[in-house]
Write a structure and sequence with these properties.
alpha/beta; Aspartate Aminotransferase, domain 1; Aspartate Aminotransferase, domain 2; 7-stranded mixed beta sheet; 4-stranded antiparallel beta sheet; 15% strand; binds pyridoxal-5'-phosphate
Length: 384
């Protein structure tokens, strides 16, 4: 109910404090099953200072627009692309929808089909529904990466694109993107890589010595990449990223926005009004942390993942789904639902789905949180 007369600021804040105490917070260390994290302190400052900047009307906020372009160029550099086209968008969902939309728009196929791994994120279901693109699901191998032969067998005259995943949502698996890229080149079909999660992990993990396949624009068949700063990039929500190799993809999804106060522009995204602060924060974090800053974040996350996997392996009654490739560890159990319920009762922010519980080693997850979690897990297992 809207009150007739407004409440005082203290009353409103007090009421909010009470109600929002229901929320789990990232800084509590209890959220182990999310790909989001507590935004970096610099990002918080930036949001407070620049929350009025609207990139939907870039003619008014020319400085913000330049910053966004530079942020995209820096992400391009990280992903081995000299000149990147794209935007900071609302998240991985919007980025994936934009890629599908671009692939559909540059093709002249009447009944468009997209081939994607069974492990793909549900954002592609939204893309399919919105864009009337049929999804053709490719099988997975035993190690949960996409089966490239099955992808090839599903290519038809209606195929407008192929999707590969660099860091699957459930298990953090990186598909064999080099082989998908070869396939894409052989058949003249664009390849989109969903690196919403892995984009801010793989480049650093490789330098740290982890053996991971190439996944980015180094591979000539890769035409677009989703990379989300609001996941492992520690940017504030919302901050997703979509990068295209060629301008023609962006042109194909650009809609004229004629009446803006800052003058006529084109919008190659789903949203109209959108937060400049997000793009500014991405720029600032890339500049502030630099390659080595992110490398250290990934070092800790990967070390936590390997350590945690080792601990899980030692426990009776649960099992690792697969060796972690990135900083995600997922385990299964016969009594998974009971275990999930007991963990939730103890306040842990996790969920069981597709037959496993996944623990994502985000920057807010510290060794002591994992130790406390394991202690609870051991106690629960002992009662089963
Ligand atoms: C691989 C992958 N792609 C896309 C998304 C969607 O991102 P968002 O929730 O930012 O829209 C996710 C989210 O977890 C993801 O794991």
């Amino acid at each position: 109910m809207i009150p007739e007369d407004g409440l005082s600021e203290e009353e409103v804040m007090g009421e909010l404090e009470k109600r929002l105490s229901l929320d789990l917070t990232f800084d509590s260390g209890k959220i182990l099953g999310s790909m989001c994290t507590y935004p970096h302190p610099l990002a918080q400052k930036i949001v407070r200072k620049y929350m009025d900047r609207n990139l939907g009307d870039p003619g008014l906020h020319v400085g913000s627009q330049k910053i966004e372009r530079e942020a995209i160029q820096m992400l391009g550099e990280l992903l081995h692309l000299k000149k990147a086209h794209g935007n900071i968008v609302s998240g991985g969902t919007e980025a994936n929808i934009l890629a599908v939309r671009a692939f559909r728009n540059v093709s002249d196929v009447e009944e468009p089909e997209l081939i994607l791994p069974k492990s793909a994120h549900f954002s592609f279901l939204k893309a399919s529904d919105l864009l009337k693109v049929k999804l053709v699901w490719a099988k997975l191998n035993k190690d949960y990466s996409v089966n490239v032969n099955d992808v090839e067998s599903k290519i038809s005259d209606n195929t407008i694109g192929i999707v590969g995943i660099a860091g699957t949502t459930g298990l953090g698996v990186v598909d064999d993107i080099p082989s998908l890229s070869d396939l894409a080149l052989d058949y003249g079909i664009p390849l989109h890589v969903d690196a919403a999660f892995g984009g801010f992990v793989i480049p650093f993990a490789k330098v740290l010595g982890y053996e991971l396949p190439d996944f980015d624009f180094k591979l000539k068949g890769v035409q677009s990449i989703t990379i989300d700063p609001h996941k492992m990039g520690m940017a504030p929500i919302p901050a997703g990223g979509i990068l295209f190799r060629k301008k023609k993809f962006v042109d194909s999804i650009s809609i004229p926005a004629p009446y803006l106060a800052g003058g006529k522009v084109s919008h190659p995204m789903i949203t109209g009004t959108r937060p400049g602060a997000s793009a500014i924060a991405v720029w600032a974090l890339l500049k502030h942390l630099g390659f080595n800053g992110y490398k250290e974040v990934v070092r800790e996350a990967m070390e936590n993942a390997l350590w945690f996997a080792e601990q899980i392996r030692a426990l009776k009654g649960i099992y690792l789904i697969r060796e972690p490739m990135l900083n995600i560890v997922s385990f299964g159990a016969k009594n998974l639902k009971t275990i999930e319920r007991a963990l939730k009762d103890r306040g842990w922010g996790i969920s069981a789905h597709r037959g496993y519980i996944r623990i994502v080693m985000m920057p807010h997850v510290r060794r002591e949180h994992l130790e406390a979690f394991l202690e609870d897990l051991r106690e629960i297992l002992a009662t089963l």
